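Morning, I've got a small favour to ask if you have a moment. It would help a lot if you went through both lines with me. Thanks so much in advance, here it is.

***
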Amino acid sequence: HSVTHFSKAQAARSTRAGQSKNSLPHPFKSKKKLCYRYSMLSNLKNTFGSDLCQSILETIFLQGYDSVLITDASNYPKITYANSAFTQLTGYSTDEILGKSPKILQGPSTSQKVIQRLRKCLIDVTVFEGSAVNYKKDGTIFMMNWRMIPIIDNGELKAWLAIQREKVVAWQPD
């Protein structure tokens, strides 16, 4: 399965054509090729074979420093997967976070402008990239950079992949 990205125009066309947001046209049939997929996966499969490629990707998910969340594709996404980097970053255990909304990380200092941009990307089924104040389980504030990527299988939105990293502010001593 490949990760694909749809343009706003493609999402709008599919909606006008009477298709739901979860049933989008296959991006590689588009003459303009407004979408792309990660060719790295094809290169990994060609170099190592499918099984080893899957092992490499699993290792990245499980051992990587970046927090990874996967949510379902519903109108109110719920978390279906969180890696150990997420649990270390936020203080939430996997059991506490599965089935919950990623909104659990938001609080009074979370920028509503960023959240509105995120919502628009979810509606348009486009990649989102941003930074916002989030909250750990214990209430500690942290700045998070993250990217949300739609996961498309056979032209249908199946899930969202979020790759997150704490934004560390560098300081210089006096």
